[in-house]
Design brief:
This protein is α+β, with helices and mostly antiparallel strands. Helix content is 31%, strand content 23%. The protein is built from 4 helices and 5 strands, in the order H-E-E-H-H-E-H-E-E.
């Protein structure tokens, strides 16, 4: 259980898949209970273990997980966040992740992305830019230097 507790403390008792709190008092056999998971289905990848709800871990199984954008955000053609995280971890740089009809929508999406990526890839600092173009607003994630 020390691995579970260490991983959970590092991840702030939040599930990396659904980004919801994990109850440390739940049984590890409960669907809302804590479990340790790898962020990738690629067995060759060297990825640290992450905290997940038992149910989230079981649902994803050995397939690549998908992180949903919140319904409250108005984003057109949102990028798949796990793939974005993987590319930015490997290469760094910038990546356009969605288009929004208003600057306010884009800024809300940018704020959510920076917050979400702070837990998804905590070792990689992220910022987000909002750029206007073609009557829409682009949300761009920018990877900083690893800590």
């Amino acid at each position: 259980m020390s691995l579970l507790h260490d991983v959970a403390e590092r991840d702030g008792w939040r599930c990396w898949v659904c980004d919801e709190p994990v109850d440390p008092d739940k049984s590890v056999n409960d669907q809302q209970g804590p479990s340790v998971d790898s962020r990738t289905a690629d067995r060759k990848a060297k990825v640290a273990e992450r905290l997940a709800h038992r149910g989230c871990n079981s649902r994803k199984g050995a397939v690549k997980v998908s992180i949903d954008w919140p319904d409250r955000l108005y984003v057109v053609e949102p990028a798949p966040l796990i793939a974005v995280a993987s590319r930015l971890e490997r290469k760094g740089g910038r990546e356009m992740v969605g288009r929004c009809p208003t600057r306010q929508d884009a800024e809300e999406a940018a704020d959510w992305l920076v917050d979400r990526f702070s837990r998804l890839v905590p070792e990689l600092p992220m910022t987000a830019d909002v750029e206007s173009g073609g009557g829409q607003f682009l949300v761009v994630l920018v990877a900083g230097r690893r800590r």
